[in-house]
């Protein structure tokens, strides 16, 4: 089961990369211990995938890189981008999350 990148999220990844002058690469998405629900999502810009990464691609060539450990918690996730005025940011629709916090940046599996 892969990670899906919505068109809105893919376009946002590409526009943010362009703003930072990054023409190649993608967004590293991961999971680490912490946050109010036990696990939290991490983001970083990368110029290329690391050894062992899974690479997922959306429209316009937008890529996300996920390490194998994080992929255990992210399989089946849909990465979206919320454009609402009060809640702008990437949103994880994660079927593995048994509980989430109010801010949406951490979860329990």
Please characterize this protein's 3D structure:
This protein starts with a strand and ends with a strand. The mean pLDDT is 86. The protein is 18% helix and 38% strand. The chain has a single domain, classed as Sandwich (Hypothetical Protein Aq_1857, Chain: A). The protein has 109 residues and is α+β, with helices and mostly antiparallel strands. The longest helix is centred in the N-terminal third of the chain and has 13 residues, at 7-19. It contains two helices and nine strands; from the N terminus they run E-H-E-E-E-E-H-E-E-E-E. 25% of the residues are buried. The protein has helices spanning 7-19, 68-74, and strands spanning 4-5, 26-33, 39-46, 54-57, 63-66, 78-82, 89-93, 99-100, 106-108. Strand 4 (54-57) and strand 5 (63-66) form a beta hairpin. A six-stranded mixed beta sheet has the order 4-5-2-3-9-8. The protein has a three-stranded mixed beta sheet with strand order 1-6-7.
The CATH homologous superfamily: HesB-like domain
C-alpha Rg (nearest Å): 13 Å
Helicity level: 10-25%
Shape descriptor: globular
Q: What are the secondary-structure elements, in order, as H or E?
A: EHEEEEHEEEE
DSSP strand content: 35-45%
Quaternary state reads single chain
Integer tally of domains: 1
The tally of helices reads 2
């Amino acid at each position: 089961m892969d990670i899906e990148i919505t068109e809105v999220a893919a376009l946002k990844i590409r526009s943010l990369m362009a703003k930072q002058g990054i023409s190649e690469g993608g967004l590293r998405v991961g999971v680490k211990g912490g946050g109010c629900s036990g696990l939290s999502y991490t983001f970083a810009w990368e110029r290329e995938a690391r050894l062992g990464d899974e690479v997922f691609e959306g429209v316009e060539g937008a890529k996300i890189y996920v390490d194998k450990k994080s992929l255990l918690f992210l399989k089946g996730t849909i990465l979206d981008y919320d454009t609402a005025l009060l809640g702008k940011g990437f949103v994880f629709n994660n079927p593995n999350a048994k509980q989430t916090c109010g801010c949406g940046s951490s979860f329990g599996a």
